[in-house]
C-alpha cells in the first residue's frame, strides 16, 4: 500500500529544496507574492476580529478567533504567497549550504516589507468599508483595544510570545508539507494555528493588520469614546497608538518569530532529520535511479524524490570533479616518478663525468711524463 504522507525526513528535504527556489525568486515576483501573503493574513485577522469583538469571555473569544484566523495561512499554502514567518525556515537550506545566508536575508527583508504592504491594503479597505461600525462601533473600539494592548507589551514579552507563535506556525507549515492531499494540508495547518491564536501569541505579520487598523480606528472619536467605556483605555494608551511607538513592537515580535521559526524549529528539525550524503553516495544513487527509475530508487535509498532529481542534475559535474581529481593525482604521481628518474640519471651522469675527468687528468700526466723522457733521450 502506498504511503499517503511524507516522512519527517522527506518534509525537511522538500522544505530545503523549496527554500532554494525562494532565494532565487526575481525581485518583482518576490514582492508580489509577499503582498499576497500579507493580504491573506490580514483578512484572517480582520475576520477573527469581527467574530469575537462582542464576546466578553477571553477564553471563548480567543478560541473562536483561532477557528477563523487559520484561513489566512491555508490560503497562502494552497494559492501561493511568501510569508515572513514561514520563510524563517530557510535557515535549514542555509545550514545545508543550498543557499547563501545573504540570499536568505534578502528574501526575509523583501518579504517582510511586502507583507506589510499587503496588510496595509486590507487595513485601508476594512477601515473605509464601514466594517468597523459593526455593533454600534464596538468593532472599531475592539480594534483600538487590541492594538493598544499589543503596543503596551514589554520587549521581553514580545520576544518570548513571538518565539512561541512561530514555533507553532512553522510546525503548521511542515505538517502541511507532510500531507499529500488538500484536505490533509488544511487540517495540518488548522490545529497549530488555532493553538497559537487561542494562546494569544504574537505574530508579526498579523500585527501588521491589528496595529495599523487600531491606529486608524483611533482617529474616529466615536470609536475612541466607546473604547474608553468598554475597555477602560487611558489617554496614555490611546496616545501610544501611532506609527513611531509601534515600531519597537514590530521589531521585538519579528525577532521572536525568527528565533522560534528559524532557530528553534529550523535548527532542531535540521539536526534531527537532515541526513548528510557524501558525493560518492549521490553518484551511486543516480546510477541506481538510471537502473530502476526515480520512484523506486528514492524509496530504496530513503531519500526524497526531489532531492534525487537534484542529484541527477549535478551528477555530471560531480563525476567530472572526481575524474579531474583522479587525473590530477595520476599526473602528480607520474611527475614524481619522472623527477626521481631524472635525479637518478643526473646522479649517474655526475659519476660518469667525475670518472672521465679522472681519466683525463691521468692521461694528461702520462703524456707530460712521456714528453719529458723523450726530451732527455734526444739530448743524450
Jot down its keywords:
Glycerol uptake facilitator protein; 380 residues
Strand-helix topology:
Blueprint: H1 8-23, H2 27-52, H3 58-68, H4 71-79, H5 84-87, H6 91-95, H7 101-129, H8 134-152, H9 155-178, H10 182-199, H11 204-217, H12 221-231, H13 235-239, H14 243-273, H15 279-292, H16 294-301, H17 305-379
Helix pairs in contact: 1-9, 2-3, 2-4, 2-7, 2-11, 3-10, 4-10, 7-11, 8-11, 8-12, 9-10, 9-14, 11-14, 15-16, 15-17
Q: How would you describe this protein?
A:
With 380 residues, the chain is mostly helical. The chain has two domains: 8-276, Glycerol uptake facilitator protein, CATH 1.20.1080.10; 277-380. 84% of the residues lie in helices and 0% in strands. It has 17 helices and no strands. The longest helix is centred in the C-terminal third of the chain and has 75 residues, at 305-379. The chain is elongated, with a radius of gyration of 37 Å. The model is unreliable at 316-320 (pLDDT under 50).
Short overview:
With about 375 residues, this protein is mainly α.
- Could you state the order of secondary-structure elements as H and E? HHHHHHHHHHHHHHHHH
How many helical elements? 17
Give the biggest beta sheet.
none
Note the beta-strand portion: under 5%
User: Level of helix content?
Assistant: over 70%
Radius of gyration: 37 Å
| pLDDT averaged over residues | 87
* Apparent shape: elongated
Cα end-to-end separation: 125 Å
CATH class of the largest domain: Mainly Alpha
Find the structural class using helix and strand composition. Answer: mainly alpha
- What CATH calls the topology of the largest domain is Glycerol uptake facilitator protein
**CATH level 4 superfamily of the largest domain:** Glycerol uptake facilitator protein
Number of strands: 0
Please tell me the CATH architecture of the largest domain by its name. Answer: Up-down Bundle
Number of domains: 2
Question: pLDDT under 50 segments (min length 5)?
Answer: 316-320
